[in-house]
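Figure caption, in words: inputs first, then the predicted bound structure.
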Amino acid sequence: MASPFLAIDIGNTRLKWALYDAAHPGAALQAHGAEFLDHIERLADGPWADLPAPGAMLGCVVAGDAVRRRAEEQIVERFDCAPRWVVSSAAEAGIVNGYDHPTRLGADRWVAMIGARHRMLDAGPARPMVVVMIGTAVTVEAIDAGGKFLGGLILPGHGIMLRALESGTAGLHVPTGEVREFPTNTSDALTSGGTYAIAGAVERMVQHVRSHCGAEPACYMTGGAGWKMAPVMNGDFELVESLIMDGLLVIAQARG
Ligand SMILES: Nc1ncnc2c1ncn2[C@@H]1O[C@H](COP(=O)(O)OP(=O)(O)O)[C@@H](O)[C@H]1O
Ligand SMILES: CC(C)(COP(=O)(O)O)[C@@H](O)C(=O)NCCC(=O)O
Ligand SMILES: [K+]
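Bound structure (PAZ present):
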Protein backbone atom coordinates (compact mmCIF):
# COMPACT_ATOMS: atom_id res chain seq x y z
CA MET A 1 0.00 0.00 0.00
CA ALA A 2 1.21 3.52 -0.81
CA SER A 3 2.18 5.65 2.17
CA PRO A 4 1.54 9.39 2.48
CA PHE A 5 4.05 11.79 0.92
CA LEU A 6 5.01 15.19 2.34
CA ALA A 7 5.98 17.96 -0.10
CA ILE A 8 7.57 21.18 1.20
CA ASP A 9 8.40 24.44 -0.58
CA ILE A 10 10.40 26.97 1.43
CA GLY A 11 10.55 30.41 -0.20
CA ASN A 12 11.91 33.67 1.20
CA THR A 13 8.57 34.56 2.82
CA ARG A 14 6.74 31.34 3.73
CA LEU A 15 7.12 27.58 4.08
CA LYS A 16 4.33 25.83 2.16
CA TRP A 17 3.61 22.14 2.84
CA ALA A 18 1.22 19.56 1.39
CA LEU A 19 0.52 15.97 2.40
CA TYR A 20 -0.58 13.58 -0.36
CA ASP A 21 -1.83 10.02 -0.09
CA ALA A 22 1.00 8.79 -2.35
CA ALA A 23 4.15 10.01 -4.14
CA HIS A 24 2.97 10.47 -7.72
CA PRO A 25 1.26 13.19 -9.77
CA GLY A 26 -2.49 13.16 -9.28
CA ALA A 27 -2.21 11.78 -5.73
CA ALA A 28 -4.99 12.98 -3.42
CA LEU A 29 -4.23 16.02 -1.25
CA GLN A 30 -4.90 15.15 2.39
CA ALA A 31 -3.79 18.34 4.16
CA HIS A 32 -1.81 21.49 3.39
CA GLY A 33 -0.74 24.78 4.92
CA ALA A 34 1.71 27.67 4.95
CA GLU A 35 3.76 29.29 7.71
CA PHE A 36 5.75 32.49 7.66
CA LEU A 37 9.43 31.64 8.14
CA ASP A 38 9.37 33.07 11.70
CA HIS A 39 6.75 30.47 12.65
CA ILE A 40 8.42 27.28 11.36
CA GLU A 41 8.98 26.14 14.96
CA ARG A 42 5.22 25.77 15.39
CA LEU A 43 4.85 23.05 12.77
CA ALA A 44 5.57 19.85 14.70
CA ASP A 45 3.28 20.63 17.63
CA GLY A 46 0.77 22.64 15.61
CA PRO A 47 -0.46 21.96 12.07
CA TRP A 48 1.52 18.70 11.77
CA ALA A 49 0.49 17.29 15.17
CA ASP A 50 -2.41 15.15 13.93
CA LEU A 51 -1.19 14.23 10.44
CA PRO A 52 -0.71 10.62 9.36
CA ALA A 53 3.03 9.88 9.15
CA PRO A 54 4.46 10.29 5.65
CA GLY A 55 6.63 7.45 4.33
CA ALA A 56 8.83 10.02 2.55
CA MET A 57 9.24 13.74 2.01
CA LEU A 58 10.78 15.86 -0.73
CA GLY A 59 11.18 19.61 -0.72
CA CYS A 60 12.79 22.61 -2.31
CA VAL A 61 14.33 25.42 -0.32
CA VAL A 62 15.72 28.78 -1.45
CA ALA A 63 15.59 30.51 1.95
CA GLY A 64 19.10 29.59 3.09
CA ASP A 65 20.75 26.95 5.27
CA ALA A 66 19.59 28.27 8.65
CA VAL A 67 15.93 28.14 7.61
CA ARG A 68 16.41 24.70 6.03
CA ARG A 69 17.87 23.40 9.29
CA ARG A 70 14.94 24.79 11.30
CA ALA A 71 12.56 23.00 8.96
CA GLU A 72 14.55 19.77 9.19
CA GLU A 73 14.33 19.91 12.99
CA GLN A 74 10.54 20.00 12.74
CA ILE A 75 10.42 17.17 10.19
CA VAL A 76 12.68 14.94 12.26
CA GLU A 77 10.94 15.84 15.54
CA ARG A 78 7.50 15.02 14.22
CA PHE A 79 8.01 12.35 11.53
CA ASP A 80 10.25 9.36 11.09
CA CYS A 81 11.43 10.33 7.61
CA ALA A 82 14.66 11.73 6.23
CA PRO A 83 14.59 15.31 4.93
CA ARG A 84 15.35 15.34 1.19
CA TRP A 85 15.76 18.49 -0.88
CA VAL A 86 15.84 18.93 -4.65
CA VAL A 87 18.99 20.48 -6.07
CA SER A 88 18.82 21.88 -9.60
CA SER A 89 20.82 19.68 -11.95
CA ALA A 90 21.70 19.43 -15.65
CA ALA A 91 18.52 17.47 -16.44
CA GLU A 92 15.59 15.94 -14.56
CA ALA A 93 12.07 14.68 -15.29
CA GLY A 94 11.94 15.99 -18.86
CA ILE A 95 13.60 19.41 -18.35
CA VAL A 96 17.14 20.16 -19.54
CA ASN A 97 18.82 22.98 -17.65
CA GLY A 98 20.25 25.75 -19.86
CA TYR A 99 21.69 27.73 -16.92
CA ASP A 100 25.43 28.56 -17.16
CA HIS A 101 25.85 26.85 -13.78
CA PRO A 102 22.86 24.48 -13.48
CA THR A 103 23.14 24.01 -9.71
CA ARG A 104 22.91 27.78 -9.11
CA LEU A 105 19.36 27.88 -10.46
CA GLY A 106 16.86 28.29 -7.61
CA ALA A 107 15.43 24.86 -6.78
CA ASP A 108 11.90 26.31 -6.64
CA ARG A 109 12.25 27.51 -10.24
CA TRP A 110 13.52 24.10 -11.36
CA VAL A 111 10.73 22.21 -9.62
CA ALA A 112 8.02 24.57 -10.93
CA MET A 113 9.24 24.05 -14.51
CA ILE A 114 9.10 20.29 -14.04
CA GLY A 115 5.56 20.55 -12.67
CA ALA A 116 4.51 22.80 -15.55
CA ARG A 117 5.99 20.50 -18.21
CA HIS A 118 4.12 17.53 -16.78
CA ARG A 119 0.88 19.51 -16.74
CA MET A 120 1.40 20.77 -20.31
CA LEU A 121 2.06 17.25 -21.68
CA ASP A 122 -1.00 15.97 -19.82
CA ALA A 123 -3.12 18.55 -21.65
CA GLY A 124 -1.89 17.87 -25.20
CA PRO A 125 1.10 17.91 -27.57
CA ALA A 126 4.43 19.45 -26.50
CA ARG A 127 4.60 23.26 -26.67
CA PRO A 128 7.04 25.88 -25.46
CA MET A 129 6.18 27.32 -22.04
CA VAL A 130 6.45 30.49 -20.00
CA VAL A 131 6.35 29.75 -16.25
CA VAL A 132 5.83 32.72 -13.91
CA MET A 133 6.20 32.59 -10.11
CA ILE A 134 4.97 35.54 -8.07
CA GLY A 135 6.52 35.09 -4.63
CA THR A 136 8.91 37.29 -2.65
CA ALA A 137 10.68 37.70 -5.97
CA VAL A 138 9.15 37.18 -9.40
CA THR A 139 10.66 34.71 -11.84
CA VAL A 140 9.73 34.29 -15.51
CA GLU A 141 11.07 31.13 -17.17
CA ALA A 142 11.26 30.19 -20.86
CA ILE A 143 11.19 26.52 -21.87
CA ASP A 144 11.16 25.25 -25.46
CA ALA A 145 8.88 22.50 -26.80
CA GLY A 146 11.61 19.90 -26.26
CA GLY A 147 11.83 20.72 -22.55
CA LYS A 148 15.00 22.84 -22.63
CA PHE A 149 15.03 25.66 -20.07
CA LEU A 150 16.29 28.54 -22.23
CA GLY A 151 16.68 31.06 -19.41
CA GLY A 152 14.59 33.25 -17.14
CA LEU A 153 14.10 36.67 -15.57
CA ILE A 154 14.28 37.58 -11.87
CA LEU A 155 12.40 40.69 -10.74
CA PRO A 156 11.54 42.15 -7.33
CA GLY A 157 8.11 41.10 -6.11
CA HIS A 158 5.38 43.58 -5.15
CA GLY A 159 6.50 43.89 -1.53
CA ILE A 160 10.16 44.47 -2.37
CA MET A 161 9.30 47.03 -5.05
CA LEU A 162 7.16 49.02 -2.62
CA ARG A 163 9.71 48.85 0.19
CA ALA A 164 12.48 49.96 -2.19
CA LEU A 165 10.43 52.97 -3.28
CA GLU A 166 9.47 53.83 0.30
CA SER A 167 13.05 53.70 1.55
CA GLY A 168 14.50 55.52 -1.46
CA THR A 169 12.16 58.52 -1.50
CA ALA A 170 10.81 61.15 0.91
CA GLY A 171 7.19 61.16 -0.21
CA LEU A 172 6.07 57.60 -0.88
CA HIS A 173 4.54 56.31 2.35
CA VAL A 174 0.98 55.41 1.51
CA PRO A 175 -1.42 52.48 1.88
CA THR A 176 -1.81 49.86 -0.83
CA GLY A 177 -3.89 51.10 -3.73
CA GLU A 178 -5.84 49.64 -6.62
CA VAL A 179 -4.58 48.57 -10.03
CA ARG A 180 -5.71 51.27 -12.49
CA GLU A 181 -4.88 51.93 -16.14
CA PHE A 182 -4.51 55.65 -15.36
CA PRO A 183 -3.75 56.01 -11.63
CA THR A 184 -4.64 59.43 -10.18
CA ASN A 185 -3.30 59.07 -6.62
CA THR A 186 -0.02 57.92 -5.11
CA SER A 187 -1.34 54.62 -3.70
CA ASP A 188 -2.86 53.58 -7.03
CA ALA A 189 0.23 54.78 -8.90
CA LEU A 190 2.52 52.56 -6.78
CA THR A 191 0.31 49.48 -6.86
CA SER A 192 -0.33 49.81 -10.59
CA GLY A 193 3.33 50.53 -11.32
CA GLY A 194 4.45 47.32 -9.61
CA THR A 195 1.74 45.22 -11.17
CA TYR A 196 2.34 46.46 -14.71
CA ALA A 197 6.12 46.21 -14.30
CA ILE A 198 5.65 42.49 -13.72
CA ALA A 199 2.99 42.13 -16.43
CA GLY A 200 5.21 43.97 -18.92
CA ALA A 201 8.23 41.75 -18.19
CA VAL A 202 6.08 38.66 -18.61
CA GLU A 203 4.66 39.92 -21.89
CA ARG A 204 8.18 40.51 -23.21
CA MET A 205 9.21 36.98 -22.29
CA VAL A 206 6.12 35.61 -24.06
CA GLN A 207 7.21 37.57 -27.17
CA HIS A 208 10.78 36.26 -26.87
CA VAL A 209 9.60 32.66 -26.62
CA ARG A 210 7.08 33.08 -29.44
CA SER A 211 9.72 34.39 -31.84
CA HIS A 212 12.53 32.05 -30.68
CA CYS A 213 10.40 28.90 -30.78
CA GLY A 214 8.01 29.86 -33.57
CA ALA A 215 5.02 28.69 -31.56
CA GLU A 216 2.60 30.08 -29.01
CA PRO A 217 3.79 29.16 -25.50
CA ALA A 218 1.59 27.57 -22.85
CA CYS A 219 1.65 30.09 -19.97
CA TYR A 220 1.47 29.14 -16.29
CA MET A 221 1.43 31.35 -13.21
CA THR A 222 1.95 30.32 -9.59
CA GLY A 223 3.17 31.70 -6.22
CA GLY A 224 1.60 33.32 -3.18
CA ALA A 225 0.68 36.51 -5.04
CA GLY A 226 -0.22 34.84 -8.35
CA TRP A 227 -3.92 35.48 -7.76
CA LYS A 228 -3.19 39.24 -7.71
CA MET A 229 -1.39 39.16 -11.06
CA ALA A 230 -3.50 36.65 -12.99
CA PRO A 231 -6.47 39.00 -13.59
CA VAL A 232 -4.32 41.69 -15.25
CA MET A 233 -2.42 39.36 -17.58
CA ASN A 234 -3.02 39.57 -21.32
CA GLY A 235 -3.38 36.25 -23.09
CA ASP A 236 -4.12 32.83 -21.68
CA PHE A 237 -2.41 32.42 -18.31
CA GLU A 238 -3.37 29.39 -16.28
CA LEU A 239 -3.10 30.04 -12.53
CA VAL A 240 -1.89 26.81 -10.88
CA GLU A 241 -1.39 27.30 -7.14
CA SER A 242 0.14 23.84 -6.77
CA LEU A 243 2.81 23.99 -9.50
CA ILE A 244 5.75 23.42 -7.13
CA MET A 245 3.96 20.65 -5.25
CA ASP A 246 3.07 19.06 -8.62
CA GLY A 247 6.74 19.22 -9.60
CA LEU A 248 7.80 17.59 -6.32
CA LEU A 249 5.31 14.76 -6.96
CA VAL A 250 6.70 14.27 -10.50
CA ILE A 251 10.29 14.15 -9.21
CA ALA A 252 9.40 11.83 -6.32
CA GLN A 253 7.75 9.41 -8.73
CA ALA A 254 10.61 9.59 -11.25
CA ARG A 255 13.13 8.85 -8.50
CA GLY A 256 11.01 5.94 -7.27
N1 LIG B 1 -1.91 35.26 2.69
C1 LIG B 1 -0.70 35.68 2.28
N2 LIG B 1 0.34 35.55 3.10
C2 LIG B 1 1.55 35.94 2.71
N3 LIG B 1 1.84 36.48 1.56
C3 LIG B 1 0.85 36.64 0.71
C4 LIG B 1 -0.46 36.24 1.01
N4 LIG B 1 -1.21 36.50 -0.04
C5 LIG B 1 -0.41 37.02 -0.93
N5 LIG B 1 0.82 37.15 -0.50
C6 LIG B 1 1.93 37.69 -1.27
O1 LIG B 1 2.71 36.60 -1.67
C7 LIG B 1 4.09 36.86 -1.46
C8 LIG B 1 4.71 35.65 -0.86
O2 LIG B 1 4.37 34.55 -1.65
P1 LIG B 1 5.03 33.16 -1.34
O3 LIG B 1 4.65 32.28 -2.48
O4 LIG B 1 4.74 32.72 0.03
O5 LIG B 1 6.57 33.59 -1.46
P2 LIG B 1 7.88 32.74 -1.25
O6 LIG B 1 7.70 31.48 -2.05
O7 LIG B 1 8.94 33.63 -1.77
O8 LIG B 1 8.00 32.46 0.21
C9 LIG B 1 4.19 38.03 -0.53
O9 LIG B 1 5.19 38.89 -1.03
C10 LIG B 1 2.83 38.67 -0.58
O10 LIG B 1 2.88 39.81 -1.43
C1 LIG C 1 14.94 33.87 -7.45
C2 LIG C 1 14.62 33.41 -6.05
C3 LIG C 1 15.16 34.43 -5.05
C4 LIG C 1 13.09 33.32 -5.90
O1 LIG C 1 12.78 33.14 -4.54
P1 LIG C 1 11.28 33.25 -3.95
O2 LIG C 1 10.64 34.44 -4.52
O3 LIG C 1 10.57 31.98 -4.38
O4 LIG C 1 11.43 33.29 -2.47
C5 LIG C 1 15.22 31.99 -5.78
O5 LIG C 1 14.77 31.10 -6.75
C6 LIG C 1 16.73 31.99 -5.74
O6 LIG C 1 17.33 32.33 -4.76
N1 LIG C 1 17.37 31.59 -6.86
C7 LIG C 1 18.82 31.45 -6.97
C8 LIG C 1 19.36 32.29 -8.08
C9 LIG C 1 18.85 31.93 -9.45
O7 LIG C 1 17.85 31.21 -9.60
O8 LIG C 1 19.50 32.34 -10.43
K1 LIG D 1 8.76 30.15 -4.18
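The domain at 91-248 is CATH 3.30.420.40 (Nucleotidyltransferase; domain 5).
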